[in-house]
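Intended use. Records such as the M23 family metallopeptidase entry shown here are meant for training and evaluating sequence-to-structure methods. They are not intended to support clinical decisions.
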Amino acid sequence: MKLNNIRSFLLTGLLGLSTLGWGQTSTTPPAPAPASNPANPFLFPIKPGTQNFLSGSMGEIRPNHFHGGIDIKTDMKIGLPVYAAADGYISRVRISSYGYGNHIVVTHPNGLVTTYSHLNHFPPALAQHMLQLQYQKKDFDIDVYPTQNQFPVKKGDIIAYSGNTGGSGGPHLHFEVRDAENKLLNPLQYGFTEVVDQVPPTVYNFALTPQSIDARVQGEYSRKEFTPEKQGNLYTIKDTLKASGLLGLEIQAIDQYNGAANRNGVQAMELRVNGEAVYRHLIDNVPFEKSRQVSVHINFPVLKLTNKAFQRLYVADGNTLPIYEVDADRGRFRIEEGKLYEVVADLKDSYNNLTQLRFMVRGESSAYQELGRPEVKTPKLSYDVMESILKITAADTAQAKRNLDLYIGNYKYAVIPSYKNAAGSVYLYNMIGGIPDSAILDGTKVKFPFNRLIPPNTEFLYTNRFMDIAFSKNSLYDTLFLQTLHDSQDVIHVNNPLITLFEPAKITIRPREIPADKSKAAVYDLGWGKGRRYLGGTWNGDAITFQVKDLGRYKVLTDTVAPTIKLVKKNSSEISFRISDNLSGIASWHCEVNGQWLLLKWEHKNATLTSERLDKTVPLSGGVVLRVKDSVGNEAVYTTKI
């Protein structure tokens, strides 16, 4: 089967001109234009015309989203000039301590927009405009949409200065290009010569995972990882793998640039089986609202458990990203008994540096076979779920293979063993046919915790004595075999954190222990261990309703302790504080000096509030009152005088 070529996103035409270079300051010389690629419509936004280095690339895998642009290093400094990439106007400015931090969006005449994030500060005119709005609204967080005539820019104007604000882990500029539909485009497609990349991607590991109940990898219904050897730009393994049935390939790989040790994302992958292309992806043109679907582009449970990002070279159920070209099996490939298959994956970065993974697979029978014998002291039944397949392993002392009794309501089904390995006899059952209650083998019994089968692409409400769970049409990527538990510690369990959602689900829980003061009680996500992340919630009688984007463990906790406030510095020019909270987290603050509202800038990374005066000629003087509230309304008050 022949797949269409992946589209290349090329920008043609000249951008229009604008006037009023308001962002340029007299103390900074104009930026030199890059000489080697005059066809590029965009100017590199940091130190244009000189070699730059990246710490992040387009499509890089993050825990809950695709990285939507490039991260440009700023020599571990803040305050480098940030230049407008093309003519246009500033269409959005946002100030926040989280996410993008100080953030600017420039709209260009052709409909494309460029974004600049984690900025330290703005040029005087824009900075004063934003400061006045903060004082008008009496709020630090502000999101502004200037009109087309307010802040026009020319290509090369200084529009900001680089920083480390928001969710940044160090000084850099996050730079994006988006189209009129808010799709994320790869900035490196425009041929910036400031970035030098002659380094092909690196493959760490690959995995084969069963995609049908008759599939086997090395004789087992298990996901198997392999570490290939590097031979130039080719990665391979010496041994021919044995498999059968429908399989999916996953690859853990990174890319790097000249002069930088950072581990970046791989832009494109293609899979061929016996020379036939079955799958391609290009991480470009990604709809911003679907960026969270990175969790089905990769093997999300493996990432959560091992911190290894394996990209799937097949399109998983629920994945609607428009970045793929696939065959009828959506990139999965079938291995037939007695046949030999050459599996080849090409990995390319944004500069077309190529790495190839190549290995051989020989088709085996999926009929029962003994791969080993368990050493059993006590008979035991254990189970696991892969996609919709229930995998039951029976460790017992029997030499001959025996059927497993599977119970679904009042019905009993005999399940034959699929194979035997060192762990025991393995039985496979597709739960789409019905959710089992229990299984018995020679008197040894296991009960299953599954409550209901929740289908994707539909609204669904599950309810029991202690909880209601409402899934929206777009909450689930794939069929969910719901597992719930209300334990002795009054903790609500809904499956586990390995299951993420595309759109939030709404959960209502009815705790056994009703808080004495519900206004101070809220729901917290307990994660895997001892974490406590505030989720909030709304009380209605003795029930509280909240939203989740990941399943897991939840508990109602009461927070009656107000935040703490410590004075760091005070004088006529500036006052600063360090604040913290023990549970629900800082929600708001309000400061007055001599009865007048004072802006305090919040930096969550070091938990500091720092003043910024509207009129720098007027010194701070008089009584100071700072009020800080946490997320459930506990308030701390600090007073002093300047």
